[in-house]
Amino acid sequence: MKDSPDFRRRSLVKGVAAASLLPLLGGNLIACTDGRDRQLPGEPQPVGVAATFNHGVASGDPLTDRVILWTRVTPDEPGFVEVEWEIAADEDFSDIVASGSGITDEDVDFTVKVDATGLDAGTSYFYRFRVRDRESPVARTRTAPSGTTATAAFAVVSCSNYPAGYFNVYREVARQPVDAVLHLGDYIYEYAPGGYASANAEALGRVVEPPREILTLADYRSRYAQYRGDPDLQAAHAAHPFIVVWDDHEIANDTWREGAENHDPEGEGEFSERRAAAIQAWYEWLPVRPPSSVAEIIYRRLPYGDLLDLIMLDTRHVGRDQQFVYPDFATGGMIDVAATRAAIGDSNRTLLGAEQLAWLEEQLTGSTARWQVLGQQVLMGRYGLPSPILEALEPSIAGADPLEGGTAAVLAAVAAKNKAPGDRTAEEQALLDSAIPYNLDAWDGYDFERNRVLDFAAQLGSRLVVLAGDTHNAWASQLRNSNGGPVGVEFAAPSVSSPGLEEVLGADAAALFAPLMSILVDDLVYANFLDRGYLTVAFAEDAVTAEWRYVSTIDSTDYTENNAAFQRRVVQRGDLLLS
Ligand SMILES: [Fe+2]
Q: Rounded to two decimals, what is the model's pTM?
């Protein structure tokens, strides 16, 4: 096919007509910013070496007229590889709408990225790549709709941890009739073999590569290559375009602007170098549109007609002040509630950073869509628990039996909460009034900025649907401004495979705790602390329907859908109240 005059002509005519047909952008952020292109000078028709497709294909960041296409090739021998691509209206490729070719090499880890343009809005397409006579799998993608749009649906996933179990959740996602998949981060984890969530890795044949905590560009590339060898992840990418943001583990646990909990500059070098390596590999391996200027800026807007504006945020790296942890506020086995509240309410404290916050406010101001959807990492709702519960569960101050202490504290708080306010003793009321965030790494630890965003959105009359990942558990909450008025809802996806609260509490306690937490937290409508799964969110003009679907196991590829755990929640556009 490569030498066919027809194909060559199409490459030159239709391919070049497709503006950024650009050759290959594949993770080659550097080539983009320094103006270098990936064609070799003096070699108009590079041939390159033969190569195979071992890491699947992917697409992403759909706009109304374009979508990113991605693959990665494994060369048979040292050298560069010429890769051809085609995108067609039909699965048989009888109606090719754009095609082209370019080269890739070790500078970009043999990844290939194309921004295929000139496409129709709200349309499904098929694409494939070719190296000499070898073809990639054929995959499906879909552009965003334009103008009047009645419906749109997304699958939402996060926290896919290779050694923790099989990616059965991705297998299920591949089957869903959605417009796109939103991956809210923790696409990879950085740990060494035997690290976090690796207890079954050997038995499952899922010990991580390379066999160390990843620190260098070569390490991060190798980890992505292992994940992308997974057939279930390949199936999800082949079925739908992905819209991806990073969370912390794409670099290291609990990252913030200048460091991470799991980064020790003493033994692991400069954090900025590790971050740059991680970011380069992320752009190379994920079907993300390369940045126009600054690599660290991944916040971006993807409109879905007049129905919704998808506003993807970075609450993790670009602007975040360092997280607080409860030992910061603990003395003598007690958490100082007033000090905690003062710290998280500090008006100088930021999660988004000033630039991103201004950008977000601009997007909200300019959005005329029926729904404003924030695709981001950490929980935005208010998840406060009485301080004795947090004291019982915080390892640095917990007693000998944290579960026993925690259970007693939860039951005392629930008993108080279940009484009418007038029937509570002063002590019971004080207990409930001591509520502070259960997770200081989330928006709860950045209360001032959260109020600013929610009050701003309320003032505009935005209809917010906030999507979150990060916790490994499922949540649905009402979002309210600082006066308690409804601004929208939060739907959080469970993890693909990382362990949830059941790992900390045990399965029985985790099952009991979810409904009790809904009693204690006013805005919390639904939680699941036990199961692995994903979320689908279907938008219509007047309502949004969220559905949580779970798999029976991740310890075997022989699994079923866990129908008993299925959950559906709906929010009406009129009152924004979650039912
Ligand atoms: Fe995670």
A: 0.93
3-state SS, 292-336, equals CCCCCCCCEEEEECCCEEEEECCCCCCCCCCCCCHHHHEECCEEC
Ligand 1 centroid from CA 98, angstroms = 38
* 3-class DSSP string for 333-368: CEECHHHHHHHHCCCCCCCCCHHHHHHHHHHHHHCC
Tell me the CA–centroid distance for residue 286 and ligand 1, in Å: 18
Cα 169 to ligand 1 centroid, rounded to whole Å: 15
| Structure letter (DSSP) for residue 44 | S
- Which sequence spans correspond to the domains of the chain? 1-143
Tokens of 248: 């912390």
Q: What is the pLDDT of residue 46?
A: 54
187 Cα: distance to centroid of ligand 1 (angstroms)? 8
Query: Quick one: tokens of 342?
Result: 């003062």
What pLDDT score was predicted for residue 8?
28
Specify the range with the lowest mean pLDDT, choosing from 132-141, 322-331, 364-373, 400-409.
Answer: 400-409
Which of 511, 528, 421 shows the shortest CA–CA distance to 476? 528
Q: Flag whether pLDDT at 10 surpasses 50.
A: no
What is the C-alpha to C-alpha distance for residues 89 and 322, in angstroms, rounded to an integer? 48
Residue-level pLDDT at 295: 82
pLDDT score of 4 more than 50: no
Q: Each residue of 556-570: pLDDT tens digit?
A: 999 999 999 999 999
The alpha carbon of 198 and the centre of ligand 1 are apart by a number of angstroms equal to 14
- How far does residue 159's CA lie from ligand 1's centre (Å)? 4
To which CATH superfamily is domain 1-143 assigned? Purple acid phosphatase-like, N-terminal (2.60.40.380)
